[in-house]
């Protein structure tokens, strides 16, 4: 497939960084995008349904085989780290080393490699910057070492890196989106068997746009709150006697009020994802607005993963006429999305920015999203 034009631009910087760090040319360049999840939040680790699309922000990796592991990044001061093995690598380099480790653990052996990373996926914005890195590294190493890995399996391997090496108990949504999404489409995916459908998502044809509001309030998946939500879901499923909350009876009720609210979110969010897919298949994009807003309400009150910044952005967008709005990603900060009329973009941007200022919150970064291309080799 042809490379995304923006990914090509970023690749030039990644290649230059590789040359500066190592004094040689890379063997190739690989790009993997961040993502927005349209709907289906915190359902992935409950075997549920998700609907992500790729953003035109990419992590790009320049790579070449070598005699020892070397990791370079354009983040910060352009640090280069070397290691004789993949053991105990920490910080930003853990996402690179962990992916190589996960490939080896999964039966796809890879050897020492020089890697240089450049990314413009916003860090801490809930737009999957870590998965973008992992997936770019994964397809780079797979190509260099001759492994033809099914993309769904590759997503599980990248998830293994995040869960077991980095230590963040995320589901498979982010890595699947980065590897599998297609330009101009939103991906409806069943997280139980990773079956998927690429659903047309042409907002411009209906005079609509999707705003992404990065609240500049970083979220951190590796902290205890995310892990606690996952533990709550596992305990709720255990009490119900089902494999996961995907299988929870629609009108089930638990004695524990907190677990009951967690279960209610997952059950209703799966219903919203299914309904959203049905509406988009019919080409009626405007019809998903109320579902987006209902998702945010559920995440705010039942799942308790929203934040002051996210609620402010959603409330302001809706107050200014957005058709629907919700937080996206793991929560506890990060980003929100708003479905808006294309001719109302400036009005809603002003309302969201003004509301943040009035509340004494950081000035948000707002941009219009398009459904971009998933992970691919750039050069």
TrEMBL record:
It is an enzyme of class 2 (transferase). One of its GO terms (molecular function) is galactokinase activity. Its EC number is 2.7.1.6. Keywords: ATP-binding, Carbohydrate metabolism, Galactose metabolism, Kinase, Nucleotide-binding, Transferase. Residues 17-65 form the Galactokinase N-terminal domain. Residues 95-180 form the GHMP kinase N-terminal domain. Residues 280-353 form the GHMP kinase C-terminal domain. Belongs to the GHMP kinase family. GalK subfamily. This is Galactokinase. It comes from Glycomyces mayteni. The lineage of its organism: Bacteria, Bacillati, Actinomycetota, Actinomycetes, Glycomycetales. The gene is galK.
């Amino acid at each position: 497939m042809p490379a995304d034009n923006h990914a090509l631009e970023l690749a030039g910087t990644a290649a230059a960084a590789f040359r500066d760090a190592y004094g040689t040319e890379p063997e190739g360049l690989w790009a993997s995008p961040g993502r927005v999840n349209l709907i289906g939040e915190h359902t992935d680790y409950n075997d549920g349904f998700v609907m992500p699309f790729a953003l035109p922000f990419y992590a790009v990796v320049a790579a070449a085989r070598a005699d020892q592991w070397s990791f370079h990044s354009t983040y910060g001061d352009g640090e280069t780290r070397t290691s004789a093995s993949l053991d105990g690598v920490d910080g930003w380099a853990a996402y690179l080393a962990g992916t190589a480790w996960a490939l080896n653990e999964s039966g796809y052996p890879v050897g020492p490699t020089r890697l240089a990373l450049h990314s413009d996926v916003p860090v801490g914005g809930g737009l999957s910057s870590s998965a973008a890195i992992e997936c770019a590294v994964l397809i780079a190493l797979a190509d260099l070492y001759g492994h033809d890995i099914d993309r769904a399996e590759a997503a599980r391997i990248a998830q293994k890196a995040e869960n077991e090496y980095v230590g963040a108990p995320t589901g498979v949504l982010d890595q699947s989106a980065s590897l599998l999404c297609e330009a101009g489409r939103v991906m409806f995916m069943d997280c139980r068997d990773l079956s998927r459908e690429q659903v047309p998502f042409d907002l411009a044809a209906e005079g609509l746009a999707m705003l992404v509001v990065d609240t500049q309030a970083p979220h951190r998946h590796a902290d205890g709150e995310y892990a606690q939500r996952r533990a709550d879901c596992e305990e709720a499923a255990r009490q119900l006697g089902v494999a996961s909350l995907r299988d929870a009876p629609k009108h089930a009720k638990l004695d524990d009020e907190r677990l009951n609210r967690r279960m209610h979110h997952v059950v209703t969010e799966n219903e919203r994802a299914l309904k959203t897919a049905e509406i988009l298949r019919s080409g009626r994009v405007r019809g998903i607005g109320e579902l987006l807003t209902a998702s945010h309400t559920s995440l705010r009150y039942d799942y308790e993963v929203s934040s002051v910044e996210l609620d402010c952005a959603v409330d302001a967008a809706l107050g200014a006429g957005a058709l629907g709005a919700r937080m996206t990603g793991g929560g506890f900060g990060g980003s929100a999305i708003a479905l808006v009329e294309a001719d109302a973009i400036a009005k809603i941007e002003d309302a969201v920015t003004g509301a943040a200022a009035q509340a004494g919150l950081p000035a948000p970064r707002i941009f219009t999203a398009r459904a971009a291309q998933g992970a691919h080799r750039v050069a």
